[in-house]
Amino acid sequence: MSLVDQPLFVDYTFALDTKKLQKRYLQLQRSLHPDNFSQKSVKEQEYSESQSSLVNKAYKTLRKPLSRGLYMLELEGMSIEEGTDSGADAEFLMELMEINEALDEAQTPEETNKIAQDTKGKLADLTERTDAALRKGELQTAKALLAQMKYHANIEEKVKEKLSQFM
Length: 167
Description:
It holds the Pfam family HSCB_C. This protein is mainly α and 167 residues long.
């Protein structure tokens, strides 16, 4: 089967097989990479560059649950506005504040790793719950869960920064 005969897309589902996604990404990049078109016409070179760029963007979007979920909401005409806490309840915001304080006060890599593991667990739980909501077509629920995922993903980034300070 030639590359042209293969489907270009992965399944339209939140819980996709990331190994299959990566395999398909690598196949497309091998065939579209601009180096393969260096002896071709300018039009073919430009096409290769634009398609390779689109494949990179699609892979970057689809490989992580948060960006994949946000994209799926966007396809349904929904988005999560930046900088708004209107969907977050006071208890959730208090929990986030406590996590951030604990991270600020963490004095050792072990303390920071504990926060990292807790955050990873929360993100895994939110990913499962988002998948269930999207499978049921409960877009508002998925939107609220993805908003929470954004907050926890921000904490995850702060944890990485904190850990790099210990090195």
